[in-house]
Amino acid sequence: MARCRLLLFLAALSSIFGLLHASAGDADPIYSACVDQCEKTGCVGDECSQHCNFTSGGIPVDGPWYLQEPLYLRWKQWDCLSDCRYHCMIAREEGRQKLGLQPIKYHRKWPFQRVYGIQEPVSVAFSVLNLAIQFHGWVSFFILVNYNLPFSPKKKPYYEYTGLWHIYAILSMNSWIWSAVSHSRDVELTEKLDYSSVVAFIGYSLLVAILRAFNVRDEASRVMIAAPIVAFVTTHILYLNFYQLNYGLNIKVCVAMTMLQFILWVVWAGFT
Fold first, then answer.
1. Where does the secretion signal sit in this chain (predicted)?
2. What ranges do the domains of the chain cover?
């Protein structure tokens, strides 16, 4: 009997912690009931989801094979559950707005409106804009180093940090690409790729800040400095992808690395 009570207590405790980590919208009983009802009927008010007539593999529940979902819809992984969550979120927020309540997050995201199947079009647009700016900066740097500045006798650029900044630009553009993809359709794969690319970019930015701030030019010294940073960043990325996608921990790690490199750049700017 005591063991049963202990198990019930642990189960209740785990459910409480689960609610603490969930978004406010997820815990809303009206929203939850709406999603459950939608999965059974396929409709939220006048809005009905065609995806609720298909299995998770895109095969129609009732109907011939040629009524399968288009490939582009299956690629975006819009399914019955995601459609129900979306329509219930819209319906619930309309109700909250009438009551004068502020918007709340659902599944860690603020309410959004789809446009042509794109989940967060404004965020996608800003990500693409940032990507274009980074690409323009990279091309400008490439032209400056290779065409406007003289070369050393070894036919290499005099600027010794050229290679580091090229890698920096590539990682930066990669992070904005996956940011656009993730905001277009947020599923587990795109979310992990987005987080991983950002962590890799911030980690490399910290490495560049250390090398540039302390004017490290010797290759052996660069390797010694890079090794622990690369090991830490790689371990963190593996942790996020294969153990637990811990959002709180990831934010702390990224903020810590960002603040550290910010301090390094401030010190470097103040003494050079």
1. 1-22
2. 24-111, 121-271
